[in-house]
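Work Package 3 (structural annotation) set out to generate three-dimensional models for the target panel prioritized at the project kickoff. During this period the team completed the workflow that converts sequence records into discrete structure tokens, so that structures can be stored uniformly alongside our sequence database. As a representative example, we reproduce one entry of 494 residues exactly as it appears in the project archive.
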Amino acid sequence: MIRNAKLLALAAGLITAMGFAPLNLWPVTLIGCCVIIAVIRNAPNLQGAIARGYWFGFGNFVIGLNWIAGAFRFQETMPIWLGYFAVIALAFYLAIYPAMAAGVAWHGRKRPVVFVLFFAFAWILTEYLRATMFTGFAWNPIGVIWVTTPVAGLARWIGTYGLSGLVMLEAGLVMVAVKDRRVRPWAAAVVIALPVLGWLVTMGNPGTTTRLIRVVQANIGQATKQNPAYDERNFDALARLTGPPGPVPRLILWPEAAVPYFLEEERWARERIAKLMGPNDVIMTGGDALVYDAKGDVSAARNSLFAMTPDAKLIARYDKSHLVPYGEYLPMRPLLSAIGLSRLVPGDLDFLPGPGPLTYALPAFGNVGVQICYEIIFSGQVVDSAHRPDFLFNPSNDAWFGAWGPPQHLAQARLRALEEGMPIVRATPTGISAVIDARGRIVTALPQGKAGFIQTTIPAVISPTPFARYGNILSIAFAFFLGLTGVALGWRRR
């Protein structure tokens, strides 16, 4: 019986991952959550509940994160099959967090509604922990399944982790209502109220500005990008899609690591790019910055974003703060390198982190914040709150991530736009490049595997949302509201 329950939990986790992009089968995710909630509540003991939560989490992560395996195709120091091992190993670790949520919720098992409230409470807290522990891995919070629905609008108030709690709350109440008629009105109210409330808080059109942007997607694959023999061809593709200047100033946006040059060191490279610009244009492009030690030797690098004017002058530089472990740097390098492991990004220098979110004033284009690639997935950590920007630029290189990674990345960027009430512009080499408005809606986008450009005006920013003002304090407060409601109901029925 216990073995069958674990298999059922694993199956529930596997189907739950179907709600993430690119499939977006969010009703299937709700069904999987209904199943796991029932399975955990029926566990004979705490150990059994934790085990069932663990196997649910493993199934969910091993499917949802399958794209990580593909990244190992673009390095030469480790065998490609190690990518599949990496997905499994990561899923074994991440499953600890759903297991913790299951263990907490099991204590309310004697009263079904109390159990559901405890599970939603614990799920919010454990997702937040997953996003913060050991530098954090916030990919695919379960609330992201609702990004294509009106329910996602509630992220403005309770954040992404609060949305995840609502997934479990709705699934749990529906599960309980199947057997308990007394709960059916409450379950129906939640099912109806969530999209209505989400729609109400995001209704209206934030409008647009007159500031012109040109987002360039040159469809440069990772294998091509890493081969120096293709550097000239890659630059020509970027140059061609940048297009000729016109009478209106343009903010030209190239992807993460778009150029192989060290722009601070090589003026000729800056001048080459400047020739593509009009007299009032500004370009923002990804590239590397070198770090020197006290002896003047190169000791490390930074994954950076540079802003440059037509006179080849660099007017801003942002250094990526939230680096990808094992991708941009190798933790415990002496130990892991000794057993043959390496980072995925080619090169001998580890990247160093920058200071965190910053806002830059660009001539004629207002204030811009930058989040490079992976950084955009961290709810509540993407904006310099002391200097709120007019929009966020999210240059990325999703060419590593196969068919599933880029749409999942885009979905999480949409949640950041909703939470912060701020437009986000994404530029990637192979897609999905997109302009997202302050409601989290895609204004325009370029699909994966297609070269092209987006020329449009920047959507308008709106007043700071409650989440923009208070961040994940609201998510945690919502979690404790659910938990304390469960405690109150438990005491009332004694």
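Residues 69 and 83 are 4 Å apart (CA to CA).
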